[in-house]
Design brief:
The complex is a heterodimer of chains A (116) and B (111). The model of chain A has no long low-confidence stretch (mean pLDDT 90). Chain A has 116 residues and is mostly beta strands. In chain A, 0% of the residues lie in helices and 52% in strands. In chain B, the strands form two sheets. In chain B, strands 2, 4, 5, 9, 10 and 11 form a six-stranded mixed β-sheet that branches. Chain B is globular. Classes of the chains: A mainly beta (116), B mainly beta (111). Chains A and B meet through β5 and β10 of A and β4, β5 and β10 of B.
């Protein structure tokens, strides 16, 4: 079974630009979540999508948005980039059925975004 | 407000000894807890989980203990191996909603 695939792996953008990150979940997983990882802050929850609907949203400004397609693939968009947006962005998919052995997240390798 | 806390940013242990990683949480509604392990340049990988109806779960060298009254979670690794050197995150959730992660503890196992 293929894992969670995130593209691109690395990205350098300039302040004020916008960026779109992509995530393909594990086949059969309909839940996709996005996290931001920065040193000292751990993993901060951005949002979760399930069956194309946003189910939960973290405490991030409206510049951060996402969507999910009918094939469960998800994209995350950040507009008007700021230097503080430099981070590792992780996508995770899961089977939302708690009875399943894979109830926890399976993470992708992340996209390293650097804003200069 | 950090609902899940890992107060030790780093831990060093000799190979063969026990590693104990700690995690505290504030929300008594959390009913499911997980530990993840993360190597540099990779995403976190699931290690072990525990439901709030249990106080211990064991998987090989890894054991997670849950003390609900103290709102405390710990991961024991016995014996520790150099390949265990990584950052460990604990996470908690309730009713299957989002998971809240701690800030991580970097474990170094010294050969």
């Amino acid at each position: 079974k293929a894992g969670v695939t995130q593209t691109p792996r690395y990205l350098i953008k300039t302040r004020g630009q916008q960026v779109t990150l992509s995530c393909s979940p594990i086949s059969g997983h309909r839940s996709v979540s996005w996290y931001q990882q920065t040193p000292g802050q751990g993993l901060q929850f951005l949002f979760e999508y399930f069956s194309e609907t946003q189910r939960n949203k973290g405490n991030f400004p409206g510049r951060f948005s996402g969507r999910q397609f009918s094939n469960s693939r998800s994209e995350m968009n950040v507009s008007t980039l700021e230097l503080g947006d430099s981070a590792l962005y992780l996508c995770a998919s899961r089977d939302r059925d708690r009875r399943s052995p894979g109830y926890g997240y399976t993470f992708g390798s992340g996209t390293r975004l650097t804003v200069v | 407000d950090q609902q899940v806390k890992q107060n030790s940013p780093s831990l060093s242990v000799q190979e063969g000894r026990i590693s104990i990683l700690n995690c505290d949480y504030t929300n008594s509604m959390f009913d499911y807890f997980l530990w993840y392990k993360k190597y540099p340049a990779e995403g976190p990988t699931f290690l072990i989980s525990i439901s709030s109806i249990k106080d211990k779960n064991e998987d090989g060298r890894f054991t997670v203990f849950l003390n609900k009254s103290a709102k405390h979670l710990s991961l024991h690794i016995v014996p520790s191996q150099p390949g265990d050197s990584a950052v460990y995150f604990c996470a908690a959730s309730f009713t299957g909603n989002q998971f809240y992660f701690g800030t991580g503890t970097s474990l170094t196992v010294i050969p």
